[in-house]
Design brief:
39% of the residues lie in helices and 16% in strands. It is α/β, with parallel strands linked by helices. Strands 1-13-10-9-6-5-2 form a 7-stranded parallel beta sheet.
C-alpha cells in the first residue's frame, strides 16, 4: 500500500497564521487530504474544526518532547518554553493524530554519546506516556544529527539504537543529503524504524545552502536530492510528507508540484 501523501503546515506558516481556514482550504484544493501540523497545542480546537471543514486529516504532527524550551535553528531568539508531553498528547487526541514527532533538538546536544543517551531517555519516557493513550512518538532529523559522528556512526543512527522500539523515525531526505549522507543508504540502514519521510528537494548549491533558511529548495523531483531512490529504499513507509523550509516561488504551486511527483511515482 503506498504511503499517504501529506504536507507539513510549517511550509505555509505565514498564510496559516493570517487565515487558518482559508489556507487549509487552499491546501485541500491543491489535492492534499492530509497535513502535518506544527505548534498545534495552542490552537488544537480551531485547527481540528478547520481540518474537518476542509476534508483534511492530521495523522502526524510536530511537537517538542525531548526539550523544555527551544531556540530558533539559526540561534536567534530567546529560549521559548514548550508544552508538557501530557499537554501535547491532549492536543494530539483532539486532532485525531496518531503519531507525534519531535521536530528538533539543538546541535549542541549531539556532541557526545551521553548527550544522545539523554535525548533517547526523554523520547523513550514520552513514548511510554503516549503508549498509554494509544499514541506513538517519533523523531525528525536535520543535518546536524548526521554530521555528528560518535563511536564510528552518525548521531542519528546511534539515537536509533538507543530508542525504545516504539519510537519511530521521520527522515528528512533533504537534510540527510545536506549532511553528505546518501538518503537511500541511510533508509536502508535504519530499516523499518522509518515510517515517515519529508520529501524535500534542493539544488544543494554550496552558496545557496549557506543561507538561513536555505535558498536552494525546489519542488520535489526538480533538484539534486535522490528522492526516488530514497523512497524506494523505505521498507515501512506510512507517510510521505511534502515540505519547504523556504521557497522563492509560489508555495502553493510548489507543494502541488511536489504532490504530483509523489502521486505519479505511486501510480507506476
Amino acid at each position: 500500500m503506498p504511503a499517504l501523501t501529506s504536507v507539513q503546515l510549517f511550509t505555509v506558516k505565514d498564510a496559516l497564521e493570517a487565515d487558518l481556514d482559508g489556507t487549509l482550504a487552499e491546501v485541500a484544493r491543491r489535492g492534499f487530504t492530509a497535513v502535518e501540523p506544527y505548534d498545534f497545542v495552542r490552537r488544537a480546537e480551531p485547527l481540528a474544526a478547520a481540518l474537518a471543514a476542509n476534508g483534511l486529516v492530521a495523522p502526524t504532527g510536530h511537537a517538542f518532547l525531548a526539550s523544555e524550551s527551544f531556540v530558533n535553528p539559526d540561534g536567534s531568539g530567546t529560549k521559548i518554553p514548550v508544552p508538557s508531553p501530557d499537554e501535547v498528547f491532549d492536543a494530539a487526541e483532539t486532532l485525531g493524530m496518531g503519531t507525534v514527532i519531535d521536530p528538533y533538538t539543538e546541535p549542541a546536544r549531539w556532541e557526545s554519546r551521553a548527550q544522545i543517551e539523554e535525548t533517547a531517555r526523554l523520547l523513550n519516557a514520552a513514548a511510554e506516556i503516549a503508549a498509554g493513550r494509544g499514541l506513538r512518538v517519533g523523531y525528525h532529523n536535520h543535518a546536524h544529527e548526521l554530521e555528528a559522528h560518535i563511536d564510528g556512526q552518525t548521531g542519528l543512527e546511534l539515537l536509533a539504537e538507543l530508542l525504545d522500539p516504539r519510537v519511530v523515525l521521520e527522515v528528512d531526505l533533504y537534510w540527510a543529503a545536506r549532511a553528505g549522507v546518501d538518503p537511500a543508504e541511510l533508509l536502508t540502514r535504519l530499516g523499518d524504524r522509518v515510517v515517515a519521510v519529508h520529501v524535500k528537494d534542493g539544488t544543494l548549491d554550496p552558496e545557496a545552502v549557506e543561507a538561513y533558511p536555505p535558498a536552494d529548495q525546489v519542488p520535489a523531483g526538480t533538484g539534486a536530492v535522490p528522492l526516488a531512490q530514497a523512497l524506494d529504499a523505505a521498507s515501512a513507509l506510512e507517510f510521505a510528507i511534502v515540505e519547504f523550509d523556504a521557497y522563492s516561488g509560489d508555495l502553493f504551486d510548489g507543494i502541488e508540484q511536489s504532490r504530483v511527483f509523489l502521486d505519479e511515482r505511486a501510480a507506476r
